[in-house]
Amino acid sequence: MLQYDGSQQSAEGILGYLINQRKPIVLDIQTQMVTDKMDLNDTPAGRVLNADICAEQKEFEEKLKRVKIEMQYREKVQRMEEDRRRLNVDLEQLKLEEAEKARVNEKSGKEMGRKMRWLLRGLGVAAAWTATVLLAGALGPTSAAGLGVLQAGLQVSKRA
After folding, report:
1. Which ranges of the chain does DSSP label H, i.e. alpha helix?
2. Residue 131 in contact with residue 120, Cβ under 8 Å?
3. 34-82 pLDDT tens trace
4. Cα angle at 50 between 47 and 54, to 5 degrees?
5. 150 and 136 Cβ atoms separated by less than 8 Å
6. Is Membrane one of the keywords UniProt gives this record (predicted)?
7. How many other C-beta atoms are found inside a 10 Å radius of the C-beta of residue 40?
8. How far apart are CA 32 and CA 44, in angstroms?
9. Which of 77, 85, 120, 154 gets the highest tally of CB atoms within 10 A of its CB?
10. What DSSP assignment string belongs to 139-150?
11. How many CA atoms are closer than 13 Å to the CA of 160, on its beta-carbon side?
12. How many CB atoms lie within 10 A of CB 115?
């Protein structure tokens, strides 16, 4: 029996032998499938091929699973980025609204203080302080309007 050792000389020797034989060569797989009526998967060659195909299929399925996970991750990241952008827009809008409310409160507080000073000038100091405290408490002493009322009360009491 001739055996191939990987060299060109070995290959040429096997080919020369086969050419000189001049009799039909029947491969084992031919005998197994034609004479023995075996399916390809039942032959030794078929089992080797099937094992290779199964290994490649398993590798492909693992790659597919990793790609799906990566796609899901990227979709989540994209959704999070979109949410972040929307939240930033909402935050900026809230900041603008709060700044506008503060401006309006400051303006109304100054106006309220001006009106209170005018009103309190006509009252005595005790009555003016009672009115000031009650009104500031109702408006909320830390609000711009409440602070305006308290300031007006102080200014009137200093003059009295």
Report:
1. 8-21, 28-30, 44-121, 125-139, 144-159
2. yes
3. 999 999 999 999 999 999 999 999 999 999 999 999 999 999 999 999 9
4. 140
5. yes
6. yes
7. 13
8. 9
9. 120
10. H-TTSHHHHHHH
11. 17
12. 13
- C-alpha distances in angstroms, 160 versus 51, 124, 155? 105, 8, 9
How close are the terminal C-alpha atoms of the chain, in Å?
130
**Segment (H or E) for 160:** none
Q: What is residue 42's DSSP assignment?
A: G
Picking from 105, 103, 124, the residue whose alpha carbon sits closest to that of residue 113 is 105
Let me know if 147 is exposed, middle or buried by CB neighbors in 10 A (0-12, 13-18, 19+). buried
Length of the chain: 160
How many Cβ atoms are within 10 Å of 68's Cβ, its own excluded? 10
Q: Which two tokens stand for residue 79?
A: 């959704």
pTM of the model: 0.41
pLDDT in tens, 110-160: 776 666 666 655 555 556 556 656 666 655 555 555 556 556 655 655 555
List the domain boundaries for the chain: 1-38, 39-159
